[in-house]
Amino acid sequence: MNRRHIKAKKAEILSLEEAVKKYMHDGIMMCTGGFTAMNRNPVAWVWETIRQEIKDIHNIDPHGCLTSWMLNAADAMAIHESAWTGWGEMAGKLDIQSGNRYKQGRLVLEEYSHGAMALRFLAGAIGSPFMPYFAPPGSDLYNPDYDALGKAGLRNGENPKIADKKFVPIEDPFFKEGTVYLLPAVRPELAVIHVSQAGEKGTARWRGIGTLDKEMAFASDKVVLTCEEIVSEAELRRLPESNQIPYFVVDCIVQVPYGAYPSSTPYFYDYDAKFIQAMNQASRNLQDLKEWLNEWVLEPACWDAFLEKIGTKRLLDLKADSALGYSTKLVRGKKPSPVMRMPLSVMKSGF
Questions:
Q1: Residue 71 burial class via C-beta count within 10 angstroms: exposed 0-12, middle 13-18, buried 19 and up
Q2: How far apart are CA 194 and CA 59, in angstroms?
């Protein structure tokens, strides 16, 4: 059984720089929370990781997030396991630098489907070595010829975090319903998850889409929460049903306001589409990408200096309406976001 289910943890509160220095190392297997490039990406963590020149990261990112784009941009990621190697609907469907590094043999890309990634994290969360999955038949994702980690010689048993096989097909032994595929659990060294609020002991809360963040927390050896604000555990426990991650699986808390920028933290601030689009444009030319990294990652003295460079007006325009959860000043298309006073279905139907 996974040791996280045996021994409780006591979370420590560190600065961003201290936490990255303590919990990151070259070659680490890590996973990052959030959803695509829009929602609760732990950007500040990866920003500081790049500044500390940590390399050869084995990154497990189920949804294609800003974090993976940044690690590719800085040539800091060696292995990427994901269900999608794009990174943003409002930028490019393809992470250009990811494609370039893959073609040059500098990046191993291992793909599973979205459902498979969810089940692999669930297996890790409950302490199971694998999980059955019925969907794979007919997909080349489960063709041995496309086992990227196997072809790279990494399923040789030397790294206990990497499964010996990508999948194992078996015949259903109970109901005789055909072939079922066994998928290996994900067991990262570290999960980094950006949340809205964290209690001083590590209880975590966010609003909006959650995806696999809870499963990541239970599946990983160590868990770091970056958060918009640290609040009292007593306050969070007034509504325990609104909390997603319990304190006893969390190792470290880092308070870093706007730590998901330019992605969003619902009910705190919206995503910055223009900034994301500029990132994508910079990635189309290596010199432009180098200049982007220097300007936005390496030159600011700290995360606060990065936010100062973004500018007060820009950040205020992204501030979320406390009732709606998103910014009503952000222009989406040709006009600002509508102020929805009721669900669209109710507005159209009248009931």
A1: buried
A2: 16
